[in-house]
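User: Assemble these into one structure.

Assistant: Restating your components, then the assembled model:
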Amino acid sequence: MEKPQSTKERILDAAEKLFATRGFYGVSIRQITTEAGVDPALASYHFGKKKDIFNAVMLRRAEVLNRERIAMLDDCIRRAKPNPAPLHEIIDAFTHALLNRATQGGQGWKHYFAIIAQINNHPELGGIIMTQYFDPLAKKFIAAIQETMPDSKPEDLYWCYHFLSGALTLTFSGTERINNLSEGLCPPSDLYAVHDRLVPFITAGFKVFAQPHKINP
Amino acid sequence: MEKPQSTKERILDAAEKLFATRGFYGVSIRQITTEAGVDPALASYHFGKKKDIFNAVMLRRAEVLNRERIAMLDDCIRRAKPNPAPLHEIIDAFTHALLNRATQGGQGWKHYFAIIAQINNHPELGGIIMTQYFDPLAKKFIAAIQETMPDSKPEDLYWCYHFLSGALTLTFSGTERINNLSEGLCPPSDLYAVHDRLVPFITAGFKVFAQPHKINP
DNA sequence: AACTTATTTCAACAAGTGTTTAATCATTCA
DNA sequence: TGAATGATTAAACACTTGTTGAAATAAGTT
């Protein structure tokens, strides 16, 4: 079943797992290499500094994930031509790959999402990495929405995207918070149920800012 | 202007500041006590273990914040009697104190929100602290919404609350992400503008789940 | 005043930190 | 086969980690 792993892969997997539960500063290189069953010096040999390991962990999955998301976004834009793509399809394109990996991607992906959630809310680490890996996708996404909602102000859309981003990262972070809070009523494992709620929730939020504001209900 | 600070307060302020930017594991007791201008041994003397310092930092502001939010929620429920409180007022009651402190609360509050954002997305620390300090408030809040939206399913409301929670923590985390992404178009310092967007955005999301579902636009 | 309690200091502890060095083993290629 | 490159190992580097103990000072109470 399991194909033989290279040392680099073993280190990345171990680092991913440990970073997910204890954060960047909460994990030592010796803990990582012990978990990987490998000599500590091999971490420096293969990756360099500790932050380079972290970057490699992030880059590995960000690449395949964002490739999928961009393809799906392009696809729904192309299908709708010459009209702009429908809003709920754009948001679905943005979230679908995330949901997919979080449900069927295995343990490694769960760890990856947990790290994303942490650094997305981390002033020091988040600023660099999120900007580097996710801003291009975010801009494409917002541009697509701007086209299907031409009357809305760009800054409104940026804010809405920001709210979406926060909701997403918390939902996939793997904290059992909603499960605890709801006393088992909302198992976060049921991510298809999440999809049925998240997409309409966010879509409705965006639509509020489609036309010139009417604040009060 | 500045009233003389006790050693305990100096340690708490220094810890708050450092935890905000580097996380729990990224900060040492010596860094904290150096920042506070105090002997390292005093941290143990006044607080005990390192995690007890962290807990004290969280508790100090969580208490005053949640007291305000509960009072405001009770107030808007009382004003609406015998009818249920309007949805947008409930959400405003939930977010108003946060916005207020984030704008006028000074640097300490900014650091506090940054820590909240980190632990809210942290499997290990978040589970304990957030549950301990914020779940009672969350339940009161959801119960109030359930009353003004009697036809909606409880699990839908829990999910909506979860999305709100994620949006809030990211917005107040103090990462400059939206500012960078929008290339200066959305300065996060303008938190009154945030309020005008966040409350209608969330309100609209909740309302989607008020009646039996109609998913497609 | 003397006595008690609270606070602060300094030094030390054993253990863990990221990283480097030089030596050894494995593999590849001519 | 032998030389050359790549991978792995063990040991050591100087430094930081959280926490504690005993001694010194400050504050508070009869």
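Chain A touches chain B through 73 residues (CB under 8 Å).
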